[in-house]
Design a protein that fits this description.
rod-shaped
C-alpha cells in the first residue's frame, strides 16, 4: 500500500508491503549518514534480514519513501527505510484445538498472505500437519489442475496467496470430495468464504464483506470456538439419533408384542389404556432426557460422518430391530407362560405391562450409544436418571394405588412377581450388549 502526503516541496510517498516487492521498487537505502544507492549486495542483506525475522515467526513488512513524488511513478525509485516485524503469537487454545481436529479426522490447512518462511514457522508452532513445506501463490500459478489435484491433500501450508489462489484451493478440495470450512476476515477472503461449504468470518476483526459472504460469524475470533462448534454439532446429531433409536425400538417392541400375540393365537396382552400409558407416560420423559445426553467420550476421536448418510444407517436399524424384536419376544413368552401356568388373563396382562415398562427403561440406558457398552458411564445423564426415577414412581402408583388399578387393570405385585418381571426385562441388556460388540467390529455394516 502506498499513500501520498503533501509537503512544503511537493508530495511525499510512503509505501509498505512484502519485503521482496518493496525492495524491488527501491533504488536507494536510508542510512545513518544519509541515503546511499541500493546495490545487489544491500538488497540481499535486507532480504536475508527479512528471512531471519520470518524464521522467528514474525510477520515482516518493508517500508519505503519517496520525496517529490508524483502519482504515476510514486512506487518506483523509492528509498528503503527499514523492516518492521509484527509478532502475533498463536493462542494456546489454538494448538490444543488443532490436535483435537487431527484426532477427529478434520484436516487443518493454513492459507495466508504471509511470507512462506513466516507461515511455516507459525504452522510448526501450532502443530499443523504437513507443515514441511509452504506452497506459494507463484507455485500455484505454475501448477495445472491435475498437479494440484494430486498434491492438494498433502499440502498443509499455502503462503503469499491471492484471493484467486484461495478460491482455487477450496474448489479443488471440494472436487476431491471434501467438506470445506474456510475462515477469514478480509475482503480478499470473501470469494473463498462464499464458495466453501461453511464460511466462517471473524466477528471482531472481520470486514462487513467477509461477514456477509460467510455462513457463520465467530464473536470471539477464536479458532477453538470452531472446534467447540463441531463437537456441539456432533453431540446434537448423536442425541437426535439416540432418542429416535429409543422411541422407534420401543414402538417396534410394543407393536411386535400386540401383533405377535395375535398371530400365535393368544389374547391381547395389553389393554388399550395400558398401551396409551406406555406411549404417553413411559416413553416421553426418557426420550426428552436422551435429547440432552452428554456427548460420548470418543465423540471427537471419530472420523467425520458422511454428509450424504442419514441417521438410519444399517447398524442403527439392526440395533433398533434387535431391541424391539427381543422386547416383543420376551414379553410374548412371559405372557404365554403366565397363561399356561394357571394365572388369570388379568394377572398376565399386568405382569406383561410392568415387564414392558421396565424393558423401556433399560432400552433408554442402552440407546445412550449405538456403539459403546452400557457399562461405560451408565448414569452420566442425570436427566435420564431423574426421568426413569419419576416414571418408576408413577409405575408403583399405578400398580399399588387402588383407584388407579381399576382404569389400568393392574393389581399389587408380590415380591415373586417383581423378581419375575425384572428378570425378563433384564434379558434385553446382554442381547444389546452382544449386538453392540458385533457392531464395534464392523460386522453390521458401515456406521456412517
Amino acid at each position: 500500500m502506498t499513500t501520498l502526503h503533501r509537503a512544503d516541496d511537493g508530495l511525499v510517498a510512503y509505501a509498505k508491503g512484502a519485503p521482496e516487492v518493496i525492495v524491488a521498487a527501491c533504488s536507494a537505502v536510508s542510512t545513518g549518514v544519509g541515503d546511499t544507492p541500493l546495490d545487489e549486495a544491500a538488497r540481499r542483506t535486507i532480504l536475508e534480514a527479512a528471512q531471519q525475522m520470518a524464521r522467528d515467526a514474525l510477520r515482516v513488512l518493508a517500508v519505503a519513501g519517496k520525496e517529490q513524488a508524483v502519482v504515476d511513478d510514486s512506487e518506483s525509485g523509492m528509498t528503503f527505510l527499514g523492516l518492521v516485524g509484527l509478532s502475533d503469537p498463536p493462542r494456546q487454545e489454538a494448538k490444543a484445538a488443532i490436535r483435537t481436529c487431527e484426532r477427529a479426522g478434520i484436516r487443518v490447512i493454513m492459507i495466508t498472505g504471509d511470507h512462506p518462511v513466516t507461515a511455516l514457522a507459525v504452522a510448526r508452532e501450532l502443530g499443523i500437519p504437513n507443515a514441511d513445506r509452504a506452497v506459494s501463490g507463484a507455485e500455484l500459478e505454475g501448477m495445472s489442475d491435475a498437479e494440484l489435484g494430486s498434491d492438494v491433500e498433502h499440502i498443509g501450508v499455502y503462503a503469499r496467496v491471492s484471493p484467486a489462489h484461495k478460491l482455487r484451493v477450496v474448489e479443488e478440495l471440494q472436487r476431491m470430495g471434501h467438506v470445506v470450512a474456510m475462515t477469514g476476515d478480509g475482503v480478499n477472503d470473501a470469494p473463498a468464504l462464499k464458495k466453501a461449504d461453511i464460511g466462517v468470518a471473524m466477528g471482531i476483526t472481520g470486514t462487513d464483506v467477509a461477514r456477509e459472504a460467510a455462513a457463520m460469524t465467530l464473536t470471539d475470533d477464536n479458532f477453538a470456538s470452531i472446534v467447540a462448534a463441531v463437537e456441539e454439532g456432533r453431540g446434537i446429531f448423536g442425541n437426535i439419533k439416540k432418542y429416535l433409536m429409543f422411541l422407534l425400538s420401543s414402538n417396534i417392541g410394543e407393536i411386535g408384542l400386540m401383533v405377535g400375540a395375535t398371530l400365535v393365537g393368544l389374547p391381547l396382552p395389553l389393554t388399550a389404556v395400558q398401551v396409551l400409558y406406555v406411549n404417553l407416560a413411559t416413553d416421553g420423559l426418557p426420550a426428552l432426557a436422551l435429547s440432552v445426553d452428554p456427548p460420548e467420550a470418543d465423540l471427537m476421536r471419530r472420523a467425520p460422518r458422511n454428509p450424504r448418510t442419514g441417521i438410519f444407517t444399517r447398524p442403527v436399524v439392526i440395533l433398533m430391530l434387535i431391541g424391539g424384536i427381543w422386547a416383543a419376544l420376551a414379553n410374548i413368552g412371559l405372557f404365554a407362560w403366565l397363561l399356561h401356568s394357571g394365572r388369570s388373563e388379568a394377572d398376565a396382562m399386568t405382569l406383561t405391562f410392568v415387564a414392558l415398562v421396565l424393558v423401556q427403561f433399560w432400552n433408554a440406558y442402552n440407546f445412550r450409544s449405538d456403539r459403546l457398552s452400557l457399562l461405560q458411564r451408565p448414569f452420566a445423564n442425570r436427566w435420564l436418571n431423574l426421568a426413569v426415577a419419576w416414571e418408576l414412581g408413577m409405575l408403583l402408583l399405578v400398580v399399588y394405588v387402588p383407584f388407579l388399578q381399576t382404569p389400568l387393570g393392574t393389581f399389587a405385585l408380590s415380591l415373586q412377581d417383581w423378581a419375575l418381571v425384572l428378570g425378563v426385562s433384564l434379558t434385553i441388556l446382554p442381547v444389546l450388549e452382544v449386538a453392540k460388540w458385533v457392531e464395534r467390529r464392523g460386522l453390521l455394516g458401515a456406521r456412517d
